[in-house]
Amino acid sequence: MPTTVDLLYGRHIEHRREEIDALLNELGFDALFIHSGRPRNRLFDDQHPPFRAHAPFVALVPLPFAIDALLEFRVGRRPRLWYCQPEDFWHLPPAEPAAWWADHFDIERVDSAQAWSSRFRSEGALAAIGQTQDLAGLGERVALNPERLLHGLAEARTCKTAWERECLARANRRAAAGHMAAADAFREGASELQIQLAYLRAVAQDQDEQPYRGIVALNEHAAVLHYQHREASPPPQSRSFLLDAGADEHGYASDITRTWTLPEYAEYAALVNEVDALQQRLCQALRPGVSFVDLHRQAHLGVAEILRQSGLVSMEPAEMVDSGVSAYFLPHGLGHFLGVQVHDVNGQVDADGHALPPPERYPFLRLTRALAPGNVVTVEPGLYFIPMLLERLRQSEFGRRIDWARIEALKPFGGIRIEDNVLVSEGDPVNLSRQAFAALS
Ligand code: GLY
Ligand code: MN
Ligand code: MN
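That is the input. Now the predicted structure with manganese (II) ion docked in place:
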């Protein structure tokens, strides 16, 4: 009896196969090969960074750690998977293919990439996706990473199948459990490293399985947007905690941020609540046809309103946004596509592949499209007290409109970001992250 997972995955690969057939016909290719990748050692070293398979491969086969596997698509044919199981006493060879996914492929077991690398040399009209040095054996006639094909595959990934939505929902549930455990550890006065360990334990995944390096930031560190360290010792006093961390489910990512403080810091707690309320309003606005650039501006207006109401900045919200003052407090983009890549593909092109660059004022906005049903996006407004940017603001013509005494008092809290993963649908948006937290309580 097939389970939900079997059925959803089966429909997913069938749907993607039809899309790939159409692309191959349109572009005149007989076959498409997609390599899973191969680890690369660091320079003058025999160690490599944690390996993860290429995203175009993972988007089709739930094997995010497969090395030297090769997918082969031919129009009208069942896809074939060259599944590499090396004879190796140094490493545990890959597991036997599991029926729930393997039944959708003709599986060719091989013990090295040599088994597939040169066997297609004499064929014409081939396309391949992967790194040049890994696919050299396919011959010189193969089209490597052809742009229009890459665009077509990426475009398909912007609209999530039911299988992908299920994976993303599960990745959210895993991460939500981690966030709650991390918040407990913060309240107990743990260090950043201790909080990270509590997170991984609750998520039940090793760091190497995580979709990205989690940001575990106490106090001022929350003002560093991609803070990369984890202090082993707790600070003398923990005031605030920003955690941006996800989880993996069959190669699909969640990307959630929560910001916490303690009851004695009422002014900061009020700001956190305001950003949270703004974030939920923005999530509700995710509808088909809505421009994400417009939503990004709404986020700035919302942050500007918080700054005005709290008395930190004496300017009207529209003036704050139009003059660029709000960007000193919110220097990053509102969000991005999410999928097998945490910053998923085609956020800055339209469906035909035409570039949609971000507005000059918001160079870090990763998603500039109008939304469509099936998109899964992050919504992550923030409000930060970043010393470097505040210094520039102080020097600017708007410096005198700022309550610097109160800003100084808020700097030791770092900053606030609230981030959820949301599915755009024909009707109400589906907030996968809030659903995941609600299921825990
Ligand atoms: N975790 C990276 C981001 O939020 O985009
Ligand atoms: Mn994030
Ligand atoms: Mn994000």
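The chain has two domains: 4-157, 162-440.
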